[in-house]
Amino acid sequence: MSSNRRKRRRRRHRRGHEWDHITKPGTMDFLGRVGLGTIGVVYLLIGFLAFRIAFGDGAERADQRGAIATVAHQPSGRVLLVLLVIGLAVLTVWYAAKAYQGGRVGDGHRGGLRTRVGMASSAFFSATLAVSAGTLVVSTDGRGETSDPATAAHRERQAIDRVLDWPNGKAIVILIALGLAYWGYKMMRRAVHHEYREQFRQVPKYRQQIVDPVGQAGFAAQAVVRWITAWFLFQAAVDHDADEVVGLDGALRHIVEEPYGRWLLLVVALGMAAFGIFRLFDATWRSRTYL
Asked: What is the pTM of this model?
């Protein structure tokens, strides 16, 4: 065996050993609880921003990046942002570790390829949020990224417009829209069938009774905004018009424009806040076999 091959083998063994250390039950428990608690705070802020839109006072983006920008504008915002970056980075490592180990789904059982892909996607998403928060931390005044919805939406539409110009770009965007719709279906299924109950089965009954309605409201709200986003993305692909694309913030703003939209958005805002509270319960009470 050549020297180079032995070196590569040692490096692979070392990386595998590092991941084995991260995926130990005690480490996964710590990472999961910190990460889930952090994303819970983010969704609580999104619910607050959605309330502001409903009452006509919502200049900030009502999405994950808007929540991060809201943190930046608080007293001691940079310190809070650093804590947020750490929490989101921990969440990223936790999702990545679960993808590596096959996504433990309880009692030591492993998920299949679909579970791995889902965990890897969640790791990528939380990593982008950590980068967004980190960008604000290193900016001159801690507020370097605008939270203006029009500017942010323009960047998103530019990205979709570029994809639509690719060969088979329309098919790619339609597949993304279908993926979002399926994600929404999974969220609604969790709400309807209480699929999250299993991970709380070791907590006292009175705590389960608190978690249950909060989880239902939270997952249902997540499903609704994903379906709205998927619909507009699908329309953008069919019409080859990126101006029709909306993100989470755009979906919430479309709700408020409908008849009785303000009241509908208030319900969704409550659901988004409920999802944040659910994640805080998740961080505190989830069974260790699901972390």
From this structure: 0.82
Beta bridge partners of 110: 104
At 286, list the tokens.
């989830």
**Tens of pLDDT, residues 243-276:** 777 777 778 877 777 777 788 889 989 999 999 9
pLDDT surpassing 70 at residue 2: no
> Are the C-beta atoms of 120 and 96 separated by less than 8 Å?
yes
Give dist(CA 72, CA 82) in Å, integer: 10
| Other Cβ atoms within 10 Å of 108 Cβ, number | 8
Closest listed residue to residue 198, CA positions, set 271, 114, 282, 118: 282
Give the C-alpha separation, 132 to 64, whole Å: 10
Give the distance from CA 228 to its chain's centroid.
16
Are the C-beta atoms of 275 and 50 separated by less than 8 Å? no
Cα-based angle 157, 158, 159 (whole degrees, multiple of 5): 90
Please report how many Cα atoms fall inside a 13 Å half-sphere around the Cα of residue 213, on the Cβ side.
Answer: 4
